[in-house]
Records
---
Amino acid sequence: MHSIYFGPEHHEFRRNVRRFVENEIAPHADQWEQARAIPRQAFRRMGELGFLGVCFPEEYGGAEGDIFMAMALLEELARSRMGGFAAAVAVQQFMAPQHIHKYGSEELKRKYLAGSISGEMVGALGVTEPGAGSDVAAIRAKASRQGDHYLINGAKTFITNGADGHFITLACKTEPGAGARGISLIVVDLDAPGVSCTRRLEKMGWHASDTAELTFEDVRAPLANLVGQENKGFYYIMQAFQLERLACAAMGLGLAQLCLEHAVKYMGERNAFGAPLSNLQALAHRLAELSARQEAARQLTYHAAWLYQNDLPCVAQCSMAKLLACELAKRVADECLQFFGGYGLMEEYPMARLLRDSRLGTIVAGTSEVMREIIARLSFGRADYK
Ligand SMILES: Cc1cc2nc3c(=O)[nH]c(=O)nc-3n(C[C@H](O)[C@H](O)[C@H](O)COP(=O)(O)OP(=O)(O)OC[C@H]3O[C@@H](n4cnc5c(N)ncnc54)[C@H](O)[C@@H]3O)c2cc1C
């Protein structure tokens, strides 16, 4: 692939990730999907290979790569044949430890960032609650100062890596009544007394990824576990959304690419009316249309990533990339399943899982409606996201 964004080192990295994912992860896909879990050893192995600290500093074990190394990794994760594996790794690297990396103390970085990069620790990010999803400012989990620690009470839901993980970067109200200005991020060990996983949630897709409902009852976390400044959490969460949305866009591209490749192969092999399906213009032109849209979504995502990397304003482009790439992945998975006819619905063929997994992208890390709202506000000059 020739690209202004990817050089020989990115191509080599992409090949290495693909080889690893196809040889060491994909063969376990059916088993892990059924078990609704990813063995911790898989994270340790990725840590060993340097795949969990792609953009983090070397002093914590990271590779100090650029955003396009991250894009390559995220796209290739789809080849694990588990959207849930891709999601778990994305949270582990691009969500849970991001705030710690940007705003955390040296002590937090040495323990939780380095632990995430090596794969010894699995991390989660806890923002969503039963009563607050898109409306982050409405969260109710509360952390109050008591001596040298915070006392935390509340509930979180839909938390990726929440059941089997080691720590959670938790959004809490430290000043109830102050709305968005009263939220802080606090790192909490998931085995701390008072933390319980009340349910592992059953989902339509991402089966291998653990999605937890968590409660916090008089949980004590040291004051030193505060990430950055008190009451600045909302701002940190909004800042981090750009990377999260780029990650979701890249995962959407990876999934759609895999669907297109499966469809091309199948349409070349399957005969109907004496010729391969690929000879049927009605199907081939639809595949062509999807391929064109995929290329457009890809280039928009790379452009947004380039803006992000160069510290240029990119809220609109990251939102557009997530919106278009994730909506497209859903459409590509649906249409490619159709090309498979009845086999598309069979679990021993790849399309059924890909379609299920494609459904999650337009909901997590900001829904498509929220992406449109952000873009609309910027278009009409009703917001000025810096
Ligand atoms: C599998 C999975 C994994 C997840 N992992 C995590 C995780 O690790 N950590 C975490 O904190 N969260 C996680 N989430 C939560 C996810 O980010 C939320 O589901 C998402 O932000 C939407 O919130 P909600 O589900 O409460 O929907 P709501 O916010 O209640 O939205 C309901 C509907 O209203 C629409 N809507 C809401 N606000 C607006 C608006 N302003 N304009 C137009 N339409 C609007 C939405 O688009 C949606 O269609 C996960 C979710 C899932 C399903």
Note: Residues 146 and 220 are 9 Å apart (CA to CA).
---
Amino acid sequence: MTDESNVIPATDPFALFDAWFAEARTSEPNDANAMALATATPDAAPSVRMVLLKGHDACGFVFYTNAHSRKGGEVLANPQAALLFHWKSLRRQIRIEGPLEEVSAQEADDYFHSRPFVSQVGSAASDQSRPLDNRATYLARVEEISEAFSSAGEVPRPPHWTGFRLSPQRMEFWIDRPNRLHERRQFTLSGDQWNSTLLYP
Ligand SMILES: Cc1cc2nc3c(=O)[nH]c(=O)nc-3n(C[C@H](O)[C@H](O)[C@H](O)COP(=O)(O)O)c2cc1C
């Protein structure tokens, strides 16, 4: 039989996230900060895609994107969203759910300009999620924006390129245990208090 004691502590879920994320950064081959982001239309049709976690603390989990994209349209119409991390190297999963809110213009500016010049150009040139007739069209826009701002060394942040912060109301930690007797612990926010319970796997 396996060791049946709990391995996921009933402590602060943010501290637990930090501990697991730190481990994932040393064990994942790349992009330990990659997470699936699920959004839904107001009539509840879901969609999901990967984004990168670019900041997190007790206020929430932040990613950056183009607000004119498909996800951007869904988020503006229906702020409820879910995040999922799956670290294969650790055999662990974290689910995080709650509403999204746009970050401040200052926060978005600071992050946009912390990125390499070529990344700023690529983002500014992309009408993310809109039809593109030909890849050459995109590359020509990249060239044009690159030339226009090369002497400045930075590109103005397009106002629709922004970040969103998910304020968690539910977080769930899943860990692989021997014989498929896996362990799950769910944290739910009630007022300003986080409660925790184990869940059947
Ligand atoms: C590992 C990985 C990380 C990604 N990170 C981001 C990101 O941080 N922001 C972003 O807008 N798109 C990111 N993408 C691209 C998205 O998955 C997606 O193709 C794009 O945002 C358009 O999604 P939408 O049409 O649902 O809006 C990433 C893709 C992968 C595979």
Note: The mean pLDDT is 96.
